[in-house]
Design brief:
Helices cover 33% and strands 14% of the residues. The protein is built from 21 helices and 21 strands. An eight-stranded mixed sheet has the order 1-4-3-2-5-8-7-6. A five-stranded antiparallel sheet has the order 11-19-20-12-21. It has a four-stranded antiparallel sheet with strand order 14-17-15-16. A hairpin with a 4-residue loop joins strand 2 and strand 3. Helix 11 crosses helix 18 and helix 16 packs antiparallel against helix 18.
Amino acid sequence: MSSQPSDPLAAVDALLAAVEAGHLLPVPAERVRLREAAGLTQAAVAQALGVRIPSIQAWEEGRAEPKPERLQAYRRLLEGLAQRYPAPAPTPSRPQDTPPAPTADPALPPTPATDTIAAAGRPAPRTPHTPRRHAVQQAAKRPTTAADPRFPHGPLAVLDGDGSAYGVDGIVLECPATTLIELVEWTLKESGLGAARLNRNGKDSDPLIVLTASAAVKLGLPERLEGREERRSLRLANDHPVVQQIGKAKWQLTQRGFGPWPRIYRAADGSARQCVQLAILSWDALDTRSWPGVAAMHPADIARVLGTYAQRVITPRGSTAVSGLELMTALRPPTKAVQENGTWVSGHNPGSLGSQPLAPAPPEAIAEHPVVVNSGWSGGFLSEEAYQWVRDPALLSDAECLLPYAVGLDLNTAFLAAAARLTVGLSGPDHFHRPVFNKKIPGSWLADLSGIDLDPCLPSPFTPDGTRPAGPAWYQTHTLAYAQELGYDVQPFEAYLRRETGAYLDPWHDRLKTAYLDTLADLGVTAGLTDADFLKAMEVHQQADPAMAAVLAAIKATVKGGIGKLRERPQGRTYRDGDPWPAMQRPTWRPDIRAAVISKARVNMHRKLANMVKLTGLYPLAVLSDCVVYPSPGPSPLDFLPYDASGKPLMGGFRLGATPGLAKLEGVQEMSWAVDLMEKGLNPARHIKGGDAVLDDGE
């Protein structure tokens, strides 16, 4: 016999409530109809209700029902939609041999049959040849904001071999292209892809189509570059059928040819650009250091990663280094419209680097540069590089050697922090003899700092390897300004200075800083965390969301790569010293700006190292670029960083936090491990993270 309920009335009430709840919502098919009638995506509904897209899919398929905390909101949405979009009256059935006439939504413009769009913010009509697609499960956590009506489907799409083109926010387009030319035409005319300019005087971002391996093969491309020459040059041969096809169709390739990031274009049609950027995944377009794990993701997840990067940084145009450089130009366009005699013409945009390259001063160039080779320059070169320093093991005290741990601190995007409010030269260099030093003028100065005595347990702030200067050398303004800050008289012998100056990198810094902090917040590292909570959040942030972790890695690579590109060296086996190379012929080939950023970053590092001695008495074991290793009584930065009696971090030394320039934990090892590396002449900062992790040298 079944057991009797302890409270029959309560049980009956609960049963009635359950029956009533089952009728609160329309049947699953009606839920789909109402959402689609309103032109809402599953992603938009999920965002509004605070749930994930799979939950909406489950509710619409009848596999699950909303939990009580979401039920009322979902019911209210459906009831509101039902009032606006009542169910159509049934129509008489037609004979089987007479297909129903297609109907069009009068609120929508005509849509080509080859461009059926599903889950894109408005419904597309069904046709026998273009079945509706649903939004993918993984969508960006934040909806696309301020969408440009010219580019309703976002900046890019990832094309798979079945014709599905995955875009941002769960959008899936159907691409009918079977050739590369058809793909270009579809992208420009029907896809709705692209992004608005980042500056009123700039240019809109060209649409990006990322090709999976199967999509590349479908379009006639090899899955991987074949042949020794193609692999060496990273581009298709000029006689490849696809390259020939592009030329026959009156399209063009850039000087880079058809490589992992080919750009296909025609001359602009009036003010409208005709250019499509491609990225070929199976040709290693997304390198694993800058985009960890992304190439192996599902196309929808790749679209989420690249789409988030595009919305927060810039639509990728190549490697993260290339994108970092492109971002500088996009935010500070070289020209703007000006009036001359009542006519609008293209003129110089103040604050930019202009549209023509500037020859560097001889000491700012590199040995291969024509300025050096053709002039016979032998006066030395500017050597402003990131730190690579290890303390002499003989200078370790017994007390330090007895400490159990070596703890590595890494400064968040140190080069980005150095770019903030950084005054750089905007005009060409002028040569001066016996100038009076002025820390406000950017340039290169020849001075002798070898007579300055500094603490031998700290690296010299004047050289990348931390050794004492041996005699006169060229220094960037920030390095000499720091010598002056330390109380030394600075008397340069000569200098190459720039009269026109400005904070060229400010908008670049601001956009990348916001992107960095927003992405960290997506990973659970938010503002206002205590130092202890910050360390805990950083321990797990990469596991919180692999897609957003990849975006974060790409943002950091964009910073370092963009600064490195300012002094890109010649490449290729056939290059000879003195010949011009493509990189040096662009306005953004500016080794003096690169030197200014790195000089300021190194000075900032030394200032913190010196302040740590004053605040704690601790000396570093080693420094590599933006990573410093300290001996510690415990395995946490909290065991040696300076705090006041109330627990507030002391200013001047290293402080923990997410903001660029603040520190995070890089790694922890035993002190004996660090000492052993130092005695072998190796840098503990390069290996403190453990495993196969090795820091780069600053670019």
